[in-house]
Design goal:
Layout lengths: L2 H11 L6 E6 L3 E6 L7 H6 L5 E5 L2 E5 L4 H11 L19 H20 L3 H20 L7 H15 L1 H13 L3 H9 L4 H8 L5 E2 L2 E2 L10 H20 L5 H43 L1 H17 L6 H9 L7 H22 L3 H17 L3 H11 L1 H20 L21 H22 L9
Antiparallel strand pairs: 1-2, 2-4, 3-4, 5-6
Helix pairs in contact: 1-3, 4-7, 5-6, 7-8, 7-10, 8-10, 8-11, 10-11, 11-12, 11-13, 12-14, 12-17, 14-15, 14-16, 14-17, 14-18, 16-17, 17-18
Length: 459
Amino acid sequence: MDYEKMAEELLELCGGGKNITSVTHCATRLRLFILDKSQVRQEEIRQKKGVLGIIYSGDELQIVLGKNLIPVYNAVTKLHQPEEGQGGKPEKKKEVRTGKEKIKDGFNRVIGFVSAGVTPMIPGLVGGGMLKVFLLLITLAWAPFEDTSTYTLLSMLADVPFYFMPVFVAYGGAKKLGGTPIFAMVAAAGLVYPEFVALLAGEETVSILNIPVMSVKYSSTLLPALLIAVCAFWCEKLLVKILPGIVRPILLGVGTMVITYTLGVTILGPLGDMAGGYVVNIFLWSSEHLGPLAVGILAGCMPFLVMTGMHHAVTPFMVQAISDPGYDVLFRPAYLLHNMAEGGACLGVALRARDKALKAECFSLAVGCIVAGVTEPAIYGVNLPLKKPMLGVMAGAAAGGVTAGFLGATAFVYGYSTILAIPIFQQTILAIVAAIIVAILVSAAVTFFLGFDESQVKH
């Protein structure tokens, strides 16, 4: 496949580089932030060879590319030349919207902003989580390893993506808004600076410009950093307008960072931490009061969250749950069991399909879902086009989720949603293994017995 040609065609179908404010990606999706949606030829993009599907989330166009993602992304970033003005972001075409459309658009923008803030750090979170898993497996096989300096240093490295999460979130948020990322990153880094943390832990009252600074633990938090990114963007934009050109290079950076940091440690940080705590408590409440059904409901709904890209919006709260209260009984089990169910549905298709090429493809996709934790190729390549296998996915994920909830499967470490990550469930590992078996078997059985029309899948 000619990836450079594909990148050129995708940019053209999206209205050109001037219609795209920024480009990023996750595990399987190219993410383009669009100015004018009317210029995007969605159906032509969907029909292109190598494109598994497209999703719109707010002003973010997500193109599912699967194994072709990285080479296409690299080609797109080389070709992408956005036209930026003084404010750091092209002017968006004005549209006349009704009240309901404005509310819906506002909600989509918030979700898109959160998703953009989270997406760049996900590979780091997964890498850190899986490193913890590998260290755990090594110590189980050879206990003295835990007392070595190698273990200590690698354990520190595994903690870095989580401890400094506000910095990475600030980067993603600033990039999405079109501001200068380093200003937001510096202000966010100030929240987890060792001496700042030690200062708040002391007995003396801390203040800045005579404004009290609340004692809050900001490591592994999301909302404080997002609010800081918004603040840094608007501060920078305001200072660009009011500062004379001759002093702007000197005062723009320091002014943006000082104002943002001051507001961050006094208002935005505590406010974001409090709001984030409420969100996590809502999910924990549902788990406590709905019991095993909570995991089953979330796992059963997960295909639709993945298809809309909203699954990334709750990722930071999963990290926050691992940080406080120190375990996750809802998010990670649901994510993992959804992936297993997608793989199980592919197995069901493979067992019933008559076409040899479809059989081979589905067995390969099943391995990708179960072992690698990558589900988009299975969703857009087989399960969604065939329709009925999606019912198998929902049934299997829900059954596995109820099993996990009933047996008490609990993640104690952040990891990836793959069968290789089951050690993160530690003493509840047998519970998650039982739930995985249920999810795969139920989804495969429901898919097999419901049947499907093979002609709906393109080869």
